[in-house]
Amino acid sequence: MRQKDFQKTGFTILELLVVIAIMGLIFTIIVTVTRTARIRARDAARISNLGEIRKALELYYADNQMYPPVSEWVYSADSSWDELADALKPYLRVLPKDPLNNAPGPWNEGNYSYAYGFNTAGLVDKYDLVTQLEDSSNPNACSKRCFLYHTEGLENPWCGAECGGPFRYNPQLYADH
What is the longest distance spanned by two Cα atoms in the chain? Predict the structure, then answer.
């Protein structure tokens, strides 16, 4: 009789497999939700950081009647970013860097950094400030806005014909006044 009682109180292999499958499903959902929240948080930080940099650039412009000239593109993922940081130091104590900051050239897929370019065509009132957003459904993604660049005096889409790619901070869209 004791052997029979033992068999009735234990779990079958099938019951254990069902419990493990349910736990795996719950774990997968939690990981996915957490990953999405982290991506959105990094994108929000990117947009906020570019807003801070833009304000510093506008203060620089007000004092110098031009944006900070740099030798060529500067990237937050390498030491060239120090050139812009030095120019903006009176206006921004620490120049922000991308949350991932993994590679220069944010117009290339998977490269998460900031880039600043000064208009070398003699138009001192233009600059480009660029980053790559991770969430393609973000309303600020280039695929949604088709942002233009004008570092070389041209008004061309960053994202190419398909307009898929990096986010360029557009002061007209995010003006404080």
Answer: 96
CA 99 to chain centre: 7
Model-level pTM? Answer: 0.72
- Residue 78: name the closest of 106, 45, 108, 42 by CA: 106
DSSP 170: -
Bridge partner list, 21: none
DSSP 96: -
Tell me the pLDDT tens digit for each residue of 144-154: 566 655 555 45
168 three-state secondary structure:
strand
Which tokens hold the place of 129? Answer: 């400030």
CB 106 within 8 A of CB 131: yes
Position 10, amino acid: G
**How many other CB atoms are there within 10 angstroms of residue 164's CB atom?**
16
